[in-house]
Amino acid sequence: MTRPPFPLADAGNLPVWRRPEALLYLMAAAMPLSFATWSALLNNFVIEVADFTGKEIGWLHTVREIPGLLAVVVITILWVMREQVLALLMLALLGAATVATGWFPTFTGLLVMTLFSSIGFHYFETVNQSLQLQWIDKARAPLVLGRIVAVGAGASLAAYGAIVALWDRLGLEYDTVYLASGGLTIAIVLFAAVAYPQFQSPHVQHQHLVLRRRYWLYYALQFMAGARRQIFVVFAGFMMVERFGMKVSEMTLLLLINYLINMLVAPVMGRALGRYGERNVMGFEYIGLTLVFLAYGGLYWFGWGLVIASGLYILDQLFFALSFSLKTYFQKIADPRDIAPTAAVAFTINHIAAVFLPAALGYLWATSPDYVFVLGAGMALVAFGLICLIPRHPEPGYETVFSRGLPQPAE
Average pLDDT over the chain, rounded to whole? Predict the structure, then answer.
């Protein structure tokens, strides 16, 4: 996959399907084919086949988040490998681990496969975020990032649609579906490795750890985003299976509806981000999440049924799709040379809470599931308070509402 670099400035001379933006769309489709399928089947798989309880699922997700905590290792890998090459290799690892997941239906086996899958997913996402911010012009970033979210949602929609349509009709097994989804991801990686040149950004990236005081708000928001994400990823889906007894086909249908809405709405979100700015969009996101988490608690307090729970789950996922606004905030305030190392640092910060929260909250879940969601509402409110510190028009030297007129620090 190593070839001479192709200047990014010359990419406009390539056919549309071979340009950097097209590769970003292709990778955005390849990743969910494995990861979304793994996620869709996971809660049913671990309960029906591996006999997991809330404690085991908490430990599994803790292991899943360890590579995210170690995302700074990417900086070292980039000493010897281009970001584009690393992105494709990590996609291939994700696909291979997904292929093997169904063959190891034990606690230990699932932890090992989850670890390999997670290394592929998190290291790909780290590099992919960096490539997006380097390859996409700032003026077009909200629109293009919205389209990337829509493409990923479309790929997830295709995977979920196939599961819903074929799971009961063909009597599919977990290992068969994992094999097919992971194999498709690997096939796309092989095509991308052959079809696309190695694009070279005009800004040479720093190849050392970058921590700057002026990015402190971005770091804080990354930490809160990671903490909030665990409530949804670990416990919202688990609740749907444990409390309401949703089967594979039913859970996948719910996810299919989620991604259909995201595919249609994400480009609109991108345009709204360009019009209203990061502060307003993220503020809307976290106020909405606070209400959703409190309503999750209401499922236990008031005995609300499956219809309300499903609606909350869809809203939760919809708000989650707005998270790309944090990327554009950083793009506006960043030194272009900081993008790759800061993407790695940000992923590590994002996963600090992710390593200890799933296991800790797994024990809380065993006695008081509603308290888990109340805690999530509190996290969303803290994040909203931080979002209020984002300027309407952030830029280098004006990263927070406190920094207007102050000299821009070098570190």
Answer: 83
